[in-house]
């Protein structure tokens, strides 16, 4: 049975959105295709109508997450007040505690380096994000790497006070 194009596209976007959320929450290896399809409200069998492999889904989910970041950066970095508000939200305990709704870079960078298809999507989107920051490229790289690294460290440590200190120090330095 063939579905209307619009309905098929909506299902495809739902799969990508749910995959992006689950991958950011648990990583590529700890999420199965069946889990993604269930989260999207679809059967496992429908997967191959949308993607050729889990790796293709990983690339699409990476691009989706990175494009969401690009949209937020482009919107917020346009003004000094927006830049500060973005950095404050990014370097927050809420973002730290909810990787599934946060930045793909902070959640998946260590895994993306091992995934060639996802890596290509990540690289292209990162270049767009750096351009959208609106600073000299070297400064944009420094800002992005500092924010992403701080979030990764804050998530990795077991000491709550130390985690908050990492976020606070970087937030203060960047704003």
UniProtKB/TrEMBL annotation:
Pfam families named among the record's database cross-references: TetR_N
Gene3D superfamilies assigned: Homeodomain-like, Tetracycline Repressor, domain 2
Database matches in PROSITE patterns: HTH_TETR_1, HTH_TETR_2
Stretches assigned to the HTH tetR-type domain: 9-69
Residues annotated to bind DNA: 32-51
Coiled coil: none
Keyword check for DNA-binding: yes
InterPro entries attached to this UniProt entry: DNA-bd_HTH_TetR-type_CS, Homeodomain-like_sf, HTH_TetR, Tet_transcr_reg_TetR-rel_C_sf
GO molecular function: DNA binding
Keywords, alphabetical: DNA-binding, Transcription, Transcription regulation
Protein name: Regulatory protein TetR
Protein's organism: Terriglobus saanensis (strain ATCC BAA-1853 / DSM 23119 / SP1PR4)
């Amino acid at each position: 049975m063939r579905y209307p194009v619009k309905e098929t596209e909506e299902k495809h976007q739902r799969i990508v959105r749910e995959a992006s959320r689950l991958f950011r929450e648990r990583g590529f290896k700890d999420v199965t295709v069946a889990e993604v399809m269930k989260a999207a409200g679809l059967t496992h069998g429908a997967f191959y109508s949308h993607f050729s492999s889990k790796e293709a889904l990983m690339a699409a989910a990476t691009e989706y997450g990175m494009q969401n970041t690009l949209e937020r950066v482009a919107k917020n970095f346009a003004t000094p007040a927006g830049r500060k508000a973005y950095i404050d939200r990014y370097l927050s305990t809420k973002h730290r505690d909810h990787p599934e709704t946060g930045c793909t870079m902070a959640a998946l960078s260590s895994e993306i380096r091992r995934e060639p298809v996802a890596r290509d999507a990540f690289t292209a989107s990162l270049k767009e994000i750096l351009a959208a920051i609106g600073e000299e490229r070297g400064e944009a790289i420094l800002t992005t790497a500092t924010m992403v690294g701080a979030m990764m460290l804050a998530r990795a440590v077991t000491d709550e006070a130390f985690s908050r200190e990492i976020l606070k120090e970087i937030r203060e330095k960047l704003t």
